[in-house]
User: Which sequence fits this backbone?
């Protein structure tokens, strides 16, 4: 049996990604077919954000990974290679 | 054909199908909701794949069983190795 925290975190991740998938699917695939007068549209941002938010998040992720790699590479320079 | 080539082929096929439908070629008139849903499809598939990856990781974390005996055995091995090396003069 996995530890309680492991299970909590794990199933929490599953629940979160299921919720995210459901919300995003509704937003992108279902909403265009629903009348613009329906109340459900109140729960969703304008459609442009459905593309802008993931793209910006992806760029931020790449930026973070790049910075991380640079920092780690910088720190692991051998002292003989660069003068102090 | 290598796996990479297969993947690239598949992507190229799907990409050109999407482009053909979505970038309003003259002569093709899809009803408006379909076009609205079709346009962000690449981003949607990426996000869906990300959700699937996250869910898989979460599920595997939740169901990976602890192996108490293996952990204890490993700790023993580590201590024995450490003792051995200390005897041979390696300083920690």
Assistant:
């Amino acid at each position: 049996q996995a530890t309680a925290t492991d299970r909590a975190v794990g199933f929490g991740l599953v629940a979160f990604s299921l919720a995210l998938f459901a919300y995003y699917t509704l937003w992108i695939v279902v909403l265009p077919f629903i009348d613009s007068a329906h109340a459900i549209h109140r729960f969703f941002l304008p459609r442009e954000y459905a593309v802008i938010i993931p793209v910006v998040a992806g760029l931020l992720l790449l930026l973070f990974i790049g910075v991380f790699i640079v920092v780690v590479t910088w720190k692991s320079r051998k002292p003989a290679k660069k003068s102090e | 054909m290598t796996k990479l080539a297969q993947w690239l082929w598949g992507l190229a096929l799907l990409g050109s199908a999407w482009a053909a439908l979505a970038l309003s070629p003259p002569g093709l008139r899809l009803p408006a909701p379909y076009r609205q849903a079709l346009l962000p499809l690449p981003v949607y598939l990426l996000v869906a794949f990300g959700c699937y990856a996250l869910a898989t990781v979460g599920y595997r974390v939740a169901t990976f069983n602890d192996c108490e005996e293996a952990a204890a055995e490993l700790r023993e091995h580590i201590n024995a190795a450490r003792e051995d090396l200390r005897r041979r003069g390696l300083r920690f």
Notes: The first helix of chain B runs from residue 3 to 22. Chain B touches chain A at residues 32-34, 36-37, 40-41, 43-44, 46-48, 51-52, 54-55, 57-66 (CB under 8 Å).
